[in-house]
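User: Show me a protein chain along with its predicted structure.
Assistant: Here is one chain, sequence first, then structure tokens.
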Amino acid sequence: MKNLSKILFVLTAVFMFSCGEKKEEEETFTIGDEPRTESATTDTRSQTSAEEGVTEVVLTANDQMKFDKNEIRVQAGQTVRLTLEHVGQMEKNVMGHNFVLLEPGTNINEFGQRAVEAADNDYIPQNADEVIANTIMLGGGESDTIEFEAPEPGTYEFICSFPGHYAVMRGKFIVE
């Protein structure tokens, strides 16, 4: 009976924690020559840099397995300086996040299954031709900045490749 009480206490605590989650709006941003927002919230951190041809993007990830953007737009050929900030508090081995930009047509489920086996490489499979750019795996309070050239025009997908996260932590990377 004592164990049953402990189990009920833990389940109640988990339920209360999940119900107290802060609801965040999904945001869409256009970055480049014509910045615009397709939501009620603006993000002044995502902008074209004073440096000619460099687009700054700040993407955050949290302990609720969410990116703050589900769409990023850039101009083809520009240098993208992307900073991923893990704004949560959980450690990397529990709730790690990264940004992985994938080639069009990549089967995300297959990629995610291969990524599980690459824990020693931040869940990026060795010799993964599908990966255009990626950050390192981050724990709560950490950030990483990468630079890469925006590929040719098209729609690409980005994910977090931590085991299981790719199912919900994904978005469109649109190159115009």
